[in-house]
Specification:
Layout: H1 3-9, E1 11-13, E2 16-20, H2 21-28, H3 32-41, E3 53-54, H4 57-64, E4 84-86, H5 88-97, H6 101-160
Antiparallel strand pairs: 1-2, 2-4, 3-4
Helix pairs in contact: 1-6, 2-3, 5-6
Length: 177
Protein backbone atom coordinates (compact mmCIF):
# COMPACT_ATOMS: atom_id res chain seq x y z
CA UNK A 1 0.00 0.00 0.00
CA UNK A 2 1.29 3.48 -0.83
CA UNK A 3 2.57 5.48 2.11
CA UNK A 4 0.87 8.63 0.83
CA UNK A 5 -2.53 6.91 1.03
CA UNK A 6 -1.83 5.81 4.58
CA UNK A 7 -0.56 9.27 5.55
CA UNK A 8 -3.74 10.84 4.19
CA UNK A 9 -5.81 8.65 6.52
CA UNK A 10 -3.83 9.55 9.65
CA UNK A 11 -5.82 12.11 11.61
CA UNK A 12 -5.06 14.17 14.66
CA UNK A 13 -7.62 13.59 17.39
CA UNK A 14 -7.07 14.69 20.98
CA UNK A 15 -3.66 15.92 19.90
CA UNK A 16 -2.54 12.45 18.80
CA UNK A 17 -1.96 10.93 15.38
CA UNK A 18 -4.45 8.09 14.95
CA UNK A 19 -6.04 5.81 12.38
CA UNK A 20 -9.76 5.10 12.67
CA UNK A 21 -11.20 1.60 12.61
CA UNK A 22 -13.07 2.02 9.30
CA UNK A 23 -9.92 3.27 7.56
CA UNK A 24 -7.90 0.39 8.99
CA UNK A 25 -10.58 -2.13 7.96
CA UNK A 26 -10.44 -0.77 4.41
CA UNK A 27 -6.65 -1.07 4.34
CA UNK A 28 -6.75 -4.59 5.80
CA UNK A 29 -9.46 -5.52 3.28
CA UNK A 30 -11.85 -6.64 6.00
CA UNK A 31 -15.08 -5.28 7.43
CA UNK A 32 -15.12 -2.72 10.22
CA UNK A 33 -17.37 -5.09 12.14
CA UNK A 34 -14.80 -7.90 11.96
CA UNK A 35 -11.99 -5.59 13.02
CA UNK A 36 -13.99 -4.37 16.02
CA UNK A 37 -14.92 -7.96 16.95
CA UNK A 38 -11.27 -8.94 17.07
CA UNK A 39 -10.40 -5.90 19.15
CA UNK A 40 -13.22 -6.59 21.62
CA UNK A 41 -12.19 -10.26 21.91
CA UNK A 42 -8.67 -9.13 22.77
CA UNK A 43 -9.57 -5.97 24.70
CA UNK A 44 -6.79 -6.54 27.28
CA UNK A 45 -4.24 -5.89 24.55
CA UNK A 46 -5.75 -2.45 23.95
CA UNK A 47 -6.06 -1.19 27.53
CA UNK A 48 -5.16 2.47 27.83
CA UNK A 49 -5.58 5.48 25.56
CA UNK A 50 -2.13 4.94 24.12
CA UNK A 51 -3.41 1.77 22.37
CA UNK A 52 -7.03 2.62 21.53
CA UNK A 53 -9.88 4.93 22.48
CA UNK A 54 -13.46 5.39 21.38
CA UNK A 55 -14.48 8.73 19.91
CA UNK A 56 -16.96 10.95 21.74
CA UNK A 57 -20.19 12.25 20.20
CA UNK A 58 -18.68 15.68 19.52
CA UNK A 59 -15.64 14.11 17.84
CA UNK A 60 -17.94 11.96 15.70
CA UNK A 61 -20.00 15.00 14.70
CA UNK A 62 -16.82 16.81 13.73
CA UNK A 63 -15.77 13.86 11.54
CA UNK A 64 -19.25 13.59 9.99
CA UNK A 65 -19.34 17.17 8.76
CA UNK A 66 -18.36 18.07 5.24
CA UNK A 67 -16.24 21.06 4.30
CA UNK A 68 -19.40 23.21 4.43
CA UNK A 69 -20.01 22.23 8.09
CA UNK A 70 -23.27 20.41 7.35
CA UNK A 71 -24.15 16.77 7.71
CA UNK A 72 -23.80 14.70 4.56
CA UNK A 73 -27.20 13.82 3.06
CA UNK A 74 -26.30 10.51 1.40
CA UNK A 75 -27.39 7.32 3.10
CA UNK A 76 -24.56 5.65 5.00
CA UNK A 77 -22.14 8.56 4.67
CA UNK A 78 -22.33 9.66 8.32
CA UNK A 79 -20.77 7.77 11.23
CA UNK A 80 -23.41 5.84 13.19
CA UNK A 81 -21.35 3.95 15.76
CA UNK A 82 -18.46 5.41 17.72
CA UNK A 83 -15.29 4.43 15.90
CA UNK A 84 -12.17 3.23 17.62
CA UNK A 85 -9.11 5.41 17.19
CA UNK A 86 -5.76 3.63 17.16
CA UNK A 87 -2.54 5.53 17.89
CA UNK A 88 0.73 4.03 16.69
CA UNK A 89 0.97 1.51 19.54
CA UNK A 90 -2.58 0.32 18.93
CA UNK A 91 -1.93 -0.19 15.23
CA UNK A 92 1.12 -2.25 16.12
CA UNK A 93 -1.00 -4.32 18.50
CA UNK A 94 -3.55 -4.97 15.74
CA UNK A 95 -1.00 -7.08 13.90
CA UNK A 96 -1.17 -9.63 16.72
CA UNK A 97 -4.98 -9.67 16.61
CA UNK A 98 -5.51 -9.77 12.84
CA UNK A 99 -3.33 -12.61 11.64
CA UNK A 100 -3.80 -12.44 7.88
CA UNK A 101 -0.86 -11.86 5.53
CA UNK A 102 -2.57 -8.69 4.27
CA UNK A 103 -2.79 -7.34 7.86
CA UNK A 104 0.91 -7.98 8.43
CA UNK A 105 1.87 -6.31 5.14
CA UNK A 106 -0.33 -3.28 5.74
CA UNK A 107 0.89 -2.97 9.35
CA UNK A 108 4.47 -2.69 8.15
CA UNK A 109 3.48 0.10 5.79
CA UNK A 110 1.50 1.87 8.50
CA UNK A 111 4.46 1.75 10.89
CA UNK A 112 6.65 3.22 8.16
CA UNK A 113 4.11 6.01 7.61
CA UNK A 114 4.06 6.86 11.32
CA UNK A 115 7.88 6.95 11.39
CA UNK A 116 8.00 9.20 8.31
CA UNK A 117 5.41 11.54 9.81
CA UNK A 118 7.36 11.67 13.08
CA UNK A 119 10.49 12.52 11.07
CA UNK A 120 8.64 15.28 9.18
CA UNK A 121 7.26 16.62 12.45
CA UNK A 122 10.80 16.70 13.87
CA UNK A 123 12.12 18.57 10.83
CA UNK A 124 9.17 20.96 10.94
CA UNK A 125 9.85 21.69 14.62
CA UNK A 126 13.50 22.39 13.83
CA UNK A 127 12.56 24.72 10.96
CA UNK A 128 10.03 26.47 13.20
CA UNK A 129 12.75 27.01 15.84
CA UNK A 130 15.12 28.43 13.20
CA UNK A 131 12.38 30.74 11.91
CA UNK A 132 11.66 32.00 15.43
CA UNK A 133 15.38 32.65 15.96
CA UNK A 134 15.58 34.49 12.62
CA UNK A 135 12.56 36.61 13.56
CA UNK A 136 14.10 37.47 16.93
CA UNK A 137 17.39 38.46 15.27
CA UNK A 138 15.52 40.51 12.65
CA UNK A 139 13.48 42.24 15.34
CA UNK A 140 16.69 43.09 17.20
CA UNK A 141 18.16 44.56 14.00
CA UNK A 142 15.03 46.62 13.36
CA UNK A 143 15.12 47.78 16.97
CA UNK A 144 18.75 48.87 16.56
CA UNK A 145 17.93 50.68 13.29
CA UNK A 146 14.96 52.40 14.93
CA UNK A 147 17.14 53.53 17.84
CA UNK A 148 19.75 55.01 15.46
CA UNK A 149 17.00 56.82 13.52
CA UNK A 150 15.67 58.33 16.75
CA UNK A 151 19.17 59.53 17.68
CA UNK A 152 19.66 61.02 14.21
CA UNK A 153 16.30 62.81 14.46
CA UNK A 154 17.36 64.31 17.81
CA UNK A 155 20.67 65.49 16.31
CA UNK A 156 18.80 67.01 13.37
CA UNK A 157 16.55 68.92 15.78
CA UNK A 158 19.62 70.32 17.53
CA UNK A 159 21.16 71.40 14.23
CA UNK A 160 17.94 73.03 13.03
CA UNK A 161 17.47 75.19 16.14
CA UNK A 162 17.82 78.92 15.46
CA UNK A 163 21.23 80.10 16.59
CA UNK A 164 22.19 83.26 18.29
CA UNK A 165 23.85 85.55 15.78
CA UNK A 166 27.56 86.04 16.13
CA UNK A 167 29.15 89.50 16.05
CA UNK A 168 28.11 93.03 16.90
CA UNK A 169 24.60 94.22 16.61
CA UNK A 170 24.40 97.70 15.22
CA UNK A 171 21.66 99.84 16.51
CA UNK A 172 19.86 101.86 13.99
CA UNK A 173 19.51 105.46 14.80
CA UNK A 174 16.36 107.08 13.88
CA UNK A 175 16.52 110.76 12.95
CA UNK A 176 13.53 112.77 14.05
CA UNK A 177 12.89 115.99 12.18
Amino acid sequence: MELSIIQSKIRIIRGRKVLLDFDLAEMYETSTRRLKEQVRRNIKRFAGDDFMFELTKSEIEELSRSQFATLNKRRGSNIKYPPFAFPELGVAMLSSVLESDKAIEVNRDIMRAFVIMRHYHSELSELNHKLEQFMMDTNMQFSDIYQVLIEMAEQKKELDKPRNPIGFIQSKTVVVE
